[in-house]
Amino acid sequence: MAERAIRLFGDPVLRSVCDPVVLGEPRVTSLIEDLVEGVTLPGRAGLAANQIGVGLRAFSYNIDGDIGYVINPVLAEVSGEPELVDEGCLSVPGFFFPRLRYPFARVTGVDLDGNSIEVSGEGLMAQALQHEVDHLDGHLYIEGLAPETKREAMRLIRQAPWY
Asked: Which residue among 87, 122, 132, 148 is the active-site one?
């Protein structure tokens, strides 16, 4: 598979709510292969379909060598007291900003065969699950920043060479 280009901040596909995946369509298998291959590149903890220009509800993850994917994910549970964590995004390259995330998250969905799957975790896994579901709902992580941090983030993003 060819590596797909990452869509950057400002691309309308990143602000659109993704459509549910219809299992059995030929392009779905190819999409999942691209997502899994794409997340294995260095520095990648997760990759949502809309980040590669596909408006379907699927994402892949790679946390401490645990690589997988979820089709039609639902953020089923978050718990604990939200914590301030540094967060970055492939679609906002070169930046990390502090934002609140729950320390535990659980996502449910299906695999390519339609089998129910569940992915959960704490720490970076919890952060990645929340981040990727946000993407599929048309939200970028910078939307959840504290107002003063968001102002500074937007200023810096507008100065980025890729913007």
From this structure: 132
